[in-house]
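Chapter review: from sequence to fold.
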Amino acid sequence: MPNYRIAPSILSADFARLGEEVRNVVAAGADIIHFDVMDNHYVPNLTIGPMVCEAIRPHVQVPIDVHLMVKPVDRIIPDFAKAGANIITFHPEASEHVDRSLQLIRDHGCKAGLVFNPATPLHYLDHVMDKLDIILIMSVNPGFGGQSFIPEALNKIAAVRQRIDAAGRDIMLEVDGGIKVENIAAAARAGADTFVAGSAIFGKPDYKAVIDAMRGQLAQA
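The token string follows.
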């Protein structure tokens, strides 16, 4: 059975109690904290920066997975590495030199990855598989939490899983957008091993019950 990881997105957390929220969701069984960075330029929303990452870092031991929805990306990568990020992903369209941006992340001691929007082609992977630790497939259009899962993402996940297997590399395959108890198994069957969930977890009173239910579905996938 694959090593499945659940990564709650703090975009849906209570920001007035963010330290408490991340502690609670890790205690409930989260493997990773997913950190959504939006710049009101690459995506039509504005969220959080390195200061917030630095503030929550002492509250959790699990990896912090920073998803940069910003353009340009290179300027901000070192700031997030210094703030305590363990994983940094970005959208290839937001970088002038994808290979260089990936290397920049790795040079700062973080795992590096690319993010693919629903309509972004996978050809960006052709020449950088050796620099990837993670590939993130968006199953919604980025910018806002609480959107519905786009089923076509399952085909894209399957296509990326084929590429990872063909490359013979240990690359995480993450999916983000509309993931919930009802569809997490389908994403796993398509080939995903890491699952970002925001409102599906933080929108419920009992985080552990939701995460346990997700793990139950994954065990049957």
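Two observations follow directly from the output. Residues 66 and 88 are 5 Å apart (CA to CA). The chain has a mean pLDDT of 96.
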